[in-house]
Amino acid sequence: MEKKEFWFVVGSQFLYGPEVLETVENRAKEMALGLSKVLPYKLVYKVTAKTNKEIMDVVKEANYDDSCLGIVTWCHTFSPSKMWINGLEALQKPYCHLATQYNMEIPNEEIDMDFMNLNQSAHGDREHGFIASRLRMQRKVIAGYWKDEEVHSRLSSWMRTAYGVAFSKNLKVMRFGDNMREVAVTEGDKVETQIKLGWQVNTWPVGKLVEVMDSVTEKEIDEMMDIYRSSYDFATDDMDSVRYQAKEEIAIKKMMDAEGCSAFSNTFQDLYGMEQLPGLASQHLMALGYGYGGEGDWKVSAMMTIMKKMGKDENGESAFMEDYTYNLAPGAKYSLGAHMLEVCPTIASSRPRIEVHPLGIGDRKDPARLVFEGKEGDAIVVSLVDMGGRLRLICQDVKCVKPILPMPNLPVARVMWQAYPDLETGIECWITAGGAHHTVLSYDVSAEQMKDFANMMAIEFVHISKDTTVESLEKELFLNDIAWKLR
Hints:
With about 475 residues, the protein is α/β, with parallel strands linked by helices. It has helices at about 20-35, 50-65, 85-90, 115-120, 120-135, 150-170, 190-195, 205-215, 220-230, 240-260, 280-285, 300-310, 425-435, 445-455, 470-485; strands at about 5-10, 40-50, 70-75, 95-100, 140-145, 170-175, 200-205, 235, 265, 290-295, 320-330, 330-340, 355, 370, 375-385, 390-400, 415-420, 440, 460-465.
């Protein structure tokens, strides 16, 4: 994070004279320094732009500087927007228009025409905003006083999303085996996805993984067991199964790190040469920030690691999840989310337990896994689906609750939530939009961030919230189909 930054580009013109321009520059530097103290990334003042060339120069520099994650613009004075055209057309990084002003209040006694000429952000930001709208540019507009906490919060969220976009553009996903046979929603166009999102999704043979597993030493396994003991409670005496999971984790991590991969997928239908389906192994890798997708679902695997990067400290509370079953009793309508093994322990309400139980699928030995309940709190579930010709990112607001049943014979990690606007409407909307059974559940990434991500990546976004109805969603999807066909 210390090596990444955003650039502050301020708009003005020569009309006001050198003294005004000097004041604008000094204030912009003060604002960038002050904001850097409260934002997750440094905001670096670059230029008070007064010409087409100055804007184009800073944009070209931003495009090819890997440390720059995006630009934040502001017009302290009036900045004629025609001079921004070439630069904005060339911009390839995320772009936020901060509509603010240096002073919080209008000074009743001091205000005169000199003050008006210097402090006309209301004028300059509208001119600047027009040209981005005229160019049909995707950008984030944040309005408010630059010292307000709400502005800091929204700008911080946008920055984290822009970091997720930069991470996405270089993301590599390692697939062990193909998708689960005959499953539709986990399929997708990998070429189109790389064009739109940057992901490099390729396959490595399970046999190669087994070779690397065979090379793992007992010393390496012992060290991993110590890590497990420091992180989790052991609720099993079957150390052989746990050690086997350690061997799997070490091998998977070695292969991913060697190839520069940040996410992986596998399937219980392709475990050739393996004794167990990776359960604990996958869960602990997710806790380290790697993405995972079960049954060959590479899209959810990639989205998971991206959303982790968009969360707190670049490894947030986001987890691979699956809608399993419902509680439909009146007054107690909930979804139960889980998976047969692999849910990230970063969302646990208490210290997870390592247990060993039969799996009943995959035709392998009983795998060790982490068992826990998810914590309570507001969250979102996110699904990326391939609609044929375009990608659709679906986001639903949920409220996670303590499970209403102990479920003592369910030996997997589980989360229970209330879907918005209510369970039945939420289900109907999700199915109508084509959402997958696999999702990313996140407590610290917001729906606004996911909308920003979709806008930055120029993909479709659908949000199911407390205000959504089936009728309004059907209309939105119908209009989206028309709009995206015209693109």
